[in-house]
Design a protein that fits this description.
- By secondary structure, the protein is an alpha+beta fold.
- It has one domain (about 10-95, about 110-120).
- The chain is about 25% helix and about 35% strand.
- The chain contains three helices and five strands.
- The chain has a five-stranded mixed beta sheet.
- A hairpin with a 6-residue loop joins β2 and β3 (about 50-60).
- The longest helix has 12 residues, at about 105-120.
- The radius of gyration is 15 Å and the shape is globular.
- It starts with 11 loop residues before the first strand and ends with a helix.
């Protein structure tokens, strides 16, 4: 199954990491944006100045969650000042995560996020 990768626009910026993870977990851009618009839970992200939102998916027998980590960035253009959403990462968690505890991020994703935030860009 080939997924069409999302395009950046004036409101949303997709990192290459998020596109790779969408492909890995077979998540469409519409599905990720649905999590952003109507999350079941909102937590503080592990990277500085980020938020993580979650939506419950799956069935009672096989529960899963879709998580999305994003950052709101202020953009100054000649015409106006507005905020742009930078989607950093997205992943599928294979169970129900405990409320109020550390966000369940797979180790490979956590390592990549730490590399992205620590490197000067």
């Amino acid at each position: 199954m080939f997924l069409k990768l999302p395009e950046n626009n004036e409101k949303i910026f997709w990192t290459q990491h998020s596109k790779d993870k969408m492909r890995q977990y077979q998540l469409s851009d519409k599905r990720v944006l649905k999590v952003l618009r109507k999350p079941d839970r909102k937590e503080e992200g592990v990277a500085p100045n980020t938020l993580a939102v979650m939506q419950i998916t799956g069935t009672k027998k096989h529960p899963t969650e879709i998580w999305l980590m994003y950052q709101t960035v202020k953009v100054r253009s000649p015409k106006a000042k507005f905020k742009k959403i930078k989607i950093i990462s997205t992943w599928r968690y294979p169970a129900r995560s405990p409320i109020g505890k550390e966000i369940p991020i797979p180790p490979d994703i956590l390592e990549e996020i730490q590399k992205m935030t620590s490197s000067p860009s």
